[in-house]
């Protein structure tokens, strides 16, 4: 089967390998690193699961690109508009200045010309007056009776002189006027050119105006001395009046020109100011908008940073938050739309639901998308986490919390024992260490808390639920065995959690121990000894001989110092449940690890769906303690139910709040339980097929031998697949594991087991996820079922019902009877008439019936869970301690048709 590397798949998805690995971990798909290869089945499962993520991401990238492009275009357009506006403004200013200076010059010129003309006219008037006076005096001096020739000739002489003088003066005046006029007229000419000014027009005579209309500036200017011409054609005695008129005319003209230009200037200036202020208001507005945009962007970036710091998807911050499994009505309320609107959309999506029906994640997202709203579906895990903020000044150093991990049999338990012994020996001599899932040891007056996680999976599961419990991982590697698969797994888990690794090279007492080889091998996995320039501290130890233990503890403390671990002890406690169980005498008992605040007896807390007042608190030695500080692990009594390992706990000030929250969570869990997604089963395949046009039957096949898988694949290949395509999405030898169930749930597959059984929590998970597990011991029966299901003929006429389970604790050989298994019934109620399967390490080793069932010396018909009994199995003498006896009945099921 073709395999795809995580790195190439990540590349294909456009995400980092780390991101993809996180998704894989969430899906419980075993992949350790970017170079891990994934089977086809997993790849298609991942693709299916991540399809919405990938689509959303692609859409987002596209939208982002588009937005960036638009923003760039907008910016470009704004820039161009601003440049254009600036250019126009500069142009306008230049033009304005030019106009102002021209107007001012013209006004000045006109005023000067008028003044000069007035002065000249005044002078002339005075001279004329003087001359007239002189002439009159002369006339008066000649006697009236003397009319002789001498007097007449004298008068003629005077008259002649007068004519010559006048002509001379006229010539002078004309010359002067000719010299002055072009200057004054230039100013007027410009004004009249620009605006056809009234002043210039009033200053010019009609014919002159006509000529000035067709002629250029200078000829028009030549006409300026018109008053002089009028003067010449007028009577001499009107010369003084004429000059006055000239004077008035020019001053009026100058005044008018000045007033006109002042008004124009003022008007234009006002308009310019108004325009400028309008533009500057526009610019101010633009600047304000830009500032606001920048501030919003900064706020957005800060929000994103904070979200990332809290491990939250920044996109989810603005989204409307709804709980997983939200009902139509609740969603409508959350989105503030009418429920009918949602019902209508659901109907159009082909999924009619009523107000109170719960919606799947996909539907919620589709509807929200349809409504153009962003939505964040809050999973129960997310709902059950709390977030806190501590002022840095309230933080105080806290002890490190350590987890020991490593390959099976490399000595984790022995090392923990040796460590506990050391810690206990130094401080609690004689104390008996009891198992509470965590232990605290003291070294050099400093505390270290060790948390026992039963396996790497648990570590990851806790991490997946947001439980950040471990500060340091101690990786145990046997010096005689070196790096093994689970060692690598542990490294990957630690790295994924970002927890530093301290390596304990164990079993150094063994003759074939080779600690250096361990170092060498670990380098390949990025765990490099400090002495070789790496980041990891290595310590050689022997758990058996208890050597190097102190050194290891000191190294852990050293590593902790680097981490500068701190917490606020002076607040309400919060932390995680490490282990929890129901104790017959004491009720629910939970081991909690405090990671913030101080937990006191009497405190009320909520953990997952449980709550209660801490009735008593015990340390690892079973001593009652009154309080637990950050990094302390204690057992607590007083909860109303058993919480789950990995649940976060938090102390509440008010007991009512605690109860409300716990009850709210339980209610939600019950609702979810009711609304669980139903997966396809062989019995419902055909009906689902016709309803939803399901044309595929996905199978996960697990078998005891490879041959069975091949035989099934072969037989299925020969089936008619024109209507239903049968896909074996995953097949392997071995018991049915949780991962198989996860895979089947994700791909709507049925699990087929040949001679194998569900292992560990696989059955519970399958029940929870509604995944059908069909187990067979004969291959043709499986083929028959699948074929019947394919054509819709499979009618469940017989069904296997599990009645109970017993664990073999001891075996006895009874003469004449044979081997008897001393058992404890762990589940259900086993009846003597039941069929029984013997399951060893997840594999069915025998299928038959009971030969005997006894309690003490009596034969009994049935035994309930919690009771011991002796069981004999027909024709089977190979029972071993640890075997599981699975009792079942085959019942007739009425046909549904
Ligand atoms: N010689 C020697 N044997 C050791 C040492 N540490 C552990 N062992 C032995 O190795 C075997 C496995 O040790 P455990 O402590 O059970 O190993 P483990 O890693 O906890 O094993 P699991 O819990 O099954 O994963 C036991 O037989 C121990 O006695 C050691 O330092 N030296």
Give the gist of this structure.
This protein is of the alpha+beta class and 897 residues long. The chain is built from 24 helices and 32 strands. The strands form 8 sheets. The protein has a 6-stranded mixed beta sheet, sandwiched between helices.
Secondary structure elements and pairings:
Layout: E1 3-5, H1 6-13, H2 17-26, E2 37-39, H3 40-141, H4 149-195, H5 198-203, H6 206-214, H7 217-222, H8 226-233, H9 239-309, E3 320-323, H10 328-335, H11 339-348, H12 361-370, E4 375-378, H13 380-383, E5 396-397, E6 401-406, H14 412-427, E7 438-443, E8 446-451, H15 456-464, E9 472-478, H16 485-497, E10 501-506, H17 515-523, E11 537-540, H18 549-563, E12 566-567, E13 574-583, E14 587-596, E15 599-600, E16 604-607, E17 610-618, E18 627-628, E19 633-639, E20 648-652, H19 655-674, H20 685-692, E21 696-703, H21 706-718, E22 725-733, H22 738-746, E23 749-754, H23 762-769, E24 773-776, H24 779-790, E25 798-814, E26 818-831, E27 835-840, E28 843-855, E29 858-859, E30 862-864, E31 868-873, E32 884-892
Parallel strand pairs: 3-4, 6-8, 6-9, 9-10, 10-11, 21-22, 21-23, 23-24
Antiparallel strand pairs: 1-2, 5-12, 7-8, 13-14, 13-20, 14-19, 15-18, 16-17, 16-20, 17-19, 25-26, 25-32, 26-30, 26-31, 27-28, 27-32, 28-29, 28-31
Helix pairs in contact: 1-2, 3-4, 3-9, 10-11, 15-16, 21-24, 22-23
This protein binds guanosine-5'-triphosphate.
The site of guanosine-5'-triphosphate has 15 residues, from helix 14.
